[in-house]
Amino acid sequence: xxxxxxxxxxxxxxxxxxxxxxxxxxxxxxxxxxxxxxxxxxxxxxxxxxxxxxxxxxxxxxxxxxxxxxxxxxxxxxxxxxxxxxxxxxxxxxxxxxxxxxxxxxxxxxxxxxxxxxxxxxxxxxxxxxxxxxxxxx
Length: 138
Prior knowledge:
The chain is mainly alpha-helical. 86% of the residues lie in helices and 0% in strands. The protein contains five helices and no strands. It has helices spanning 2-24, 27-48, 51-74, 83-107, 113-137. Helix 2 (27-48) packs antiparallel against helix 3 (51-74) and helix 4 packs antiparallel against helix 5. The model has no long low-confidence stretch (mean pLDDT 88).
């Protein structure tokens, strides 16, 4: 009887730890939403703001956002299961989309506001889709 009580206590402790971890793992969806929203400003700025000032301002702003998001991620107490692989897939999909958008924006659609307006949500799509999926799983 004592063994059953001990096993039940262990299972309750495991359930409590799991519930705490699930509750604290929602930060990754917020991180992805912030990254997605940032694309809506970054992509048009890079595609439409030419010259050294645009390049410097866009690069510095992007560096600050990426450093802020990275600092935020490293300070989280809980890392979602499979986070590394998921994050690499999201960033890989974003990188392909971003490079394609820049290549087309600097060669075929130079100074096209319509293209920049379409490219921005396209670049935000990998992170926003992953954020939506993350939010549903928590």
